[in-house]
Write a structure and sequence with these properties.
It contains 4 helices and 2 strands. Helices cover 45% and strands 13% of the residues. The chain has a two-stranded parallel sheet. The two termini are 27 Å apart. It has helices at residues 3-10, 13-16, 34-48, 75-89, and strands spanning 23-28, 53-58. It has 93 residues and is of the alpha+beta class. The longest helix has 15 residues, at 34-48.
């Protein structure tokens, strides 16, 4: 089971229980499932429980926009998202 699915299934419970650490979100504006859930549930819970979220929303991008050889591939968004991910992860060296 993917980690994203696990988080989606758990809802905001980990935030309520005091999950620690930084959270980065790379979101696609045309992803009706994950992006909608994030704005409806995760971000309000993050505010409520005072969690820091590093969120990036890519316009005109679909779910899995980073995946090459896929009709929804968005190379510009994928390149930018990857650089933001590397920058985010560099905080933990």
């Amino acid at each position: 089971m993917s980690r994203l699915f696990e988080i989606h299934r758990l809802g905001t419970e980990p935030l309520r229980k005091g999950a620690e650490g930084l959270i980065q979100l790379i979101l696609a504006s045309e992803d009706e499932r994950v992006t909608a859930w994030t704005f409806e549930y995760l971000l309000p819970a993050a505010v409520k429980y005072k969690k820091r979220i590093d969120a990036h929303l890519y316009p005109n991008a679909r779910h899995a926009f980073h995946r090459p050889n896929w009709e929804g591939h968005n190379p510009d968004a994928a390149k930018d998202a990857w650089s933001k991910t590397l920058l985010f992860l560099s905080q933990f060296k």
